[in-house]
Amino acid sequence: MKASGASLGTILLRISLLILIIGLATWGAHEIRDSLNLQIRPDNEQQVHKAIMLGAVAYIGLLALPFVPGAEIGIALLAAFGAAIAPLIYICTVASMMLAFTVGRFLPIDALERLLSLLRMRRAAALVAQAAPLSGDARLAMLLDGQSGRVVRVALRHRYVAVALAINTPGNSIIGGGGGIMLLAGLSGIFSPIWTFLTVAIAVSPVPIAVIFLGLQI
């Protein structure tokens, strides 16, 4: 009982630290977003340039973090500077998504197993442990063979389309946001970097295209 209590205390502590980190990052995103509310004048050109660079760097970093609303910074930049900044926002969005994916590719998959075990999701942890020593193709085959649900099989077979839809789904922050989705995609080992890049490049393009060519106001 004592060991179980200590284990529960450790779990609660780790979850609290995770919530604290996400909260601080979210607060930082809001602060940066508010600081981008600048009036462009001839006498503050240097300040505007610094704000754009700060916003772009923060946008890439925060958007790549799971559960952090970094997209608000991109929206603030578009609202402040309009179509002229849209190409930069597009490039930064793609860079952020691929950063999260790349981090996931280099993380050991047993990190996911430990996280699932920590959350007491034992069946999922066992599945990850079974998949860990396999190659990407073998993992995909195992998942396809082991899933009875037709929707899951379709999603796995058309996983790039599924990722594109997940990135663009309103409210996806509850499943980790764009950064969390791409981190898990990289961690899974079943996504090709080239096809993932092309998927992301297409998936995040509608808003910048609308701003540039259709004059959409944010």
Index terms:
218 residues; 75% helix; 12 helices; 0% strand; disordered N terminus
Give a verbal description of the structure:
The chain has 218 residues and is mainly α. The chain has one domain. The chain has 12 helices and no strands. The longest helix is centred in the N-terminal third of the chain and has 34 residues, at 2-35. It is globular and about 55 Å long. Residues 1-6 have low confidence and may be disordered.
Can you lay out the helices and strands and say which pair or pack?
Blueprint: H1 2-35, H2 45-63, H3 71-81, H4 86-106, H5 110-118, H6 122-131, H7 136-146, H8 150-157, H9 159-168, H10 177-188, H11 193-203, H12 206-213
Helix pairs in contact: 1-2, 1-3, 2-3, 2-4, 4-10, 4-11, 4-12, 5-6, 8-9, 9-10, 9-11
Keywords: Membrane, Transmembrane, Transmembrane helix
Organism: Rubricella aquisinus
Transmembrane segments: 6-30, 51-69, 75-101, 160-188, 194-216
